[in-house]
Specification:
There is one protein chain. The chain is an alpha/beta fold. It is rod-shaped and about 105 Å long. The chain is about 45% helix and about 25% strand. The chain has three domains: about 5-85, Orthogonal Bundle (Arc Repressor Mutant, subunit A), CATH 1.10.10.10; about 90-160 and about 265-290, D-Maltodextrin-Binding Protein, domain 2, CATH 3.40.190.10; about 165-255, Periplasmic binding protein-like II (D-Maltodextrin-Binding Protein, domain 2, 3-Layer(aba) Sandwich).
């Protein structure tokens, strides 16, 4: 028994005669009759009673008809699903992202991507940059979204526009009319900084002969913003992280220091297999970026 025989059998039953079935299938009547005979011999029973005028399905034929219909429908569905996965219309996308970017960068991009590819599911890993690199090298995620600078020799990358740092405080004691400030304007304030950027901030201050007052260090941007909102000090964070905490009563100004600007890179392992789903996502990012 094979798929062709089951298809022939279903068509004979649904058309009522072998002659009509042969016309629908675009094959000659004798070969169609021969296929039905071979199927009956294999199963050891009569499936269709043939007369000169019409064909009548038997009880065993009805049983086979119901089962064959389900089998062929399952084959059609499975074939479509396999093709959809191959073409990136179904499947899953696993992304590792630093926590702040997971909340600020992904929702907008994923919303438009999901509208275009509703059959795709997501696995999001909130990790630090080093862990994301490790997950990529182990093949456990498709794509990583990290802050730069970072050694990207092993990876392909889409580099997104730099983001300025901002000073965030419940009361910034600087000129209100200024749209931005210098790092030196913050020198007397207790500063709340991410550990990743502390060294750069300190070095830039030292170049101007200044010593910053690092009051608190944290890896979590949300914690830093909440401390600033509580009046504990002035937070220095990437501008695209400001909206991570809603409805907080703070002021913010861009820091006029290009050396502090933060880059973002979307990376994937060079010379490794990339799923169709991942390629669709990257194509969408490239379109947005350009």
């Amino acid at each position: 028994m094979n798929i062709k025989q089951l298809t022939y059998f279903l068509t004979i039953v649904e058309e009522g005669t072998i002659l009509k079935a042969s016309k629908k299938l675009h094959i000659a009547q004798p070969p169609l009759s021969q296929q039905l005979k071979l199927l009956e011999e294999e199963l050891g029973c009569i499936l269709i009673e043939r007369t000169t005028r019409k064909s009548q399905i038997t009880d065993t034929g009805k049983k086979l008809y119901n089962g064959a219909k389900k089998i062929l429908e399952l084959i059609d569905t499975t074939t479509k699903e396999v093709r959809d996965v191959k073409e990136g219309l179904q499947g899953s996308l696993s992304i590792g992202t630093v926590s702040a970017l997971g909340a600020s960068f992904l929702p907008e991009r994923f919303s438009s991507f999901h509208q275009k590819y509703p059959g795709i599911k997501f696995d999001i890993y909130d990790e630090n940059t080093n862990k994301i690199i490790e997950l990529l090298e182990q093949g456990l995620i498709d794509i990583g979204i990290i802050r730069t600078p970072f050694n990207l020799d092993k990876f392909e990358a889409i580099i997104l526009p730099d983001v300025p740092m901002i000073a965030v405080s419940r009361n910034l004691e600087v000129e209100k009319v200024c749209e931005n400030i210098r790092l030196s304007d913050l020198i007397n304030m207790p500063l709340i900084v991410q550990q990743r950027y502390e060294k750069t901030i300190v070095e830039l201050c030292f170049k101007e002969g200044l010593t910053p007052n690092i009051f608190c260090r944290s890896n979590d941007v949300r914690t830093i913003l909440l401390w600033a909102a509580a009046g504990m000090g002035t937070a220095i964070v990437p501008k695209d992280c400001l909206h991570l905490i809603n409805d907080i009563n703070v002021e913010h100004k861009e820091i006029r220091e290009t050396s502090l600007n933060i880059g973002t890179a979307i990376i994937w392992t060079r010379n490794c297999y990339l799923t169709a789903v991942a390629r669709h996502f990257l194509d969408g990012i490239t379109t947005i970026s350009t």
